[in-house]
């Protein structure tokens, strides 16, 4: 059974903001991946995954989807009985789309109408995002559908607004001094509680105002400058974004990263931001001189995801 691989995703910009209609920019991340496989289920990981798929298939059997997006749930359940599991090294609770890759893999294999990511139109992307949101909501209570969409498309995606997404080209990587990197906080984050905190904060008019007038403005400016490869305004807005998050997203920043977050802002050697919902998992780092940042962040496990 030769099944395609589904990569993890990284939401470079847009965490929380996309809930309030900011732009977002996401990239596939091939370091982590997953694929559907059959086995005799003779180890705990495979057994657990198979049981999870069975529970999920029950959810799918009761989910009503439009005719163009129907899944062959009976085949899925029959394969689960034959030992189907999701073989994945994507860490859960790290903000890199573990459930997104699973949903994308199931959709690719069991959707009655097959779709080629290369030929999907902007209108279809919009519909797919809605469908994926419904498929993934089983895991998070509520899902925008963005994670599975990126995992399915395996292309960078620009989230233009709540309604509109499009495929996008990002500047070609260069082996320069600069880098975008992940820092492992060493603790798992849970999406649900973090989103709950965010919605509580949204009830405060002052927070809503600063989110719209500052966070979203800096976030969108970062995306615009990054896509144009205009690095001076990019880092200028990135610093403002990092300061804003340090002040307003404190509950989402893992405790062991408070001080290094501030150290980056004070020294301008690197800037940190949330990767996904925060609370644990990965944090994103950006540095014009990665060697210097790496030295200052000694003791933390880091992974470079993009060089410039």
From TrEMBL:
Q: Which InterPro entries match?
A: GHMP_kinase_C_dom, GHMP_kinase_C_sf, GHMP_kinase_N_dom, HddA/FKP, Ribosomal_Su5_D2-typ_SF, Ribsml_uS5_D2-typ_fold_subgr
User: Which keywords has UniProt assigned to this entry?
Assistant: ATP-binding, Kinase, Nucleotide-binding, Transferase
Which molecular function GO terms apply here? ATP binding; kinase activity
Q: Which Gene3D superfamilies match?
A: 3.30.230.10, GHMP kinase, C-terminal domain
In this protein, which residues make up the domain named GHMP kinase C-terminal?
224-301
Occurrences of domain GHMP kinase N-terminal (ranges):
84-152
Q: Name the domain of life this protein comes from.
A: Bacteria
Name one matching Pfam family.
GHMP_kinases_C
Record protein name field: Mevalonate kinase
């Amino acid at each position: 059974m030769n099944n395609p691989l589904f990569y993890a995703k990284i939401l470079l910009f847009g965490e929380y903001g996309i809930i309030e209609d900011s732009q977002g920019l996401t990239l596939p991340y091939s370091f982590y991946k997953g694929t559907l496989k059959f086995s005799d289920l003779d180890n705990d990981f495979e057994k657990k995954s198979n049981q999870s798929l069975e529970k999920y298939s029950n959810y799918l059997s009761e989910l009503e989807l439009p005719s163009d997006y129907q899944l062959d749930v009976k085949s899925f359940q029959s394969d689960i009985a034959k030992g189907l599991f999701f073989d994945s090294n994507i860490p859960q609770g790290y903000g890199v789309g573990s459930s997104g890759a699973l949903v994308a893999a199931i959709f690719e294999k069991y959707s009655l109408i097959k779709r080629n990511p290369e030929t999907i139109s902007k209108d279809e992307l919009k519909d797919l995002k809605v469908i994926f949101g419904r498929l993934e909501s089983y895991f998070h209570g509520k899902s925008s559908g963005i994670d599975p969409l990126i995992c399915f498309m395996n292309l960078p995606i620009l989230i233009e607004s709540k309604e509109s997404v499009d495929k996008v080209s990002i500047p070609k990587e260069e082996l320069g001094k600069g880098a975008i990197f992940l820092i492992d906080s060493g603790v798992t984050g849970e999406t649900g509680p973090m989103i709950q905190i965010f919605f509580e904060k949204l009830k405060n008019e002052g927070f809503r105002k600063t989110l719209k007038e500052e966070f979203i403005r800096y976030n969108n400016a970062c995306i615009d400058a990054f896509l144009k490869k205009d690095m001076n305004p990019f880092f200028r807005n990135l610093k403002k974004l990092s300061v804003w998050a340090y002040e307003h997203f404190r509950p989402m920043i893992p405790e062991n990263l408070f001080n290094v977050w501030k150290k980056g802002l004070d020294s301008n050697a690197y800037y940190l931001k949330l990767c996904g919902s925060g609370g644990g998992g990965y944090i994103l780092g950006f540095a014009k001189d990665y060697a210097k940042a790496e030295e200052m962040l000694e003791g933390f496990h880091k992974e470079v995801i993009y060089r410039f």
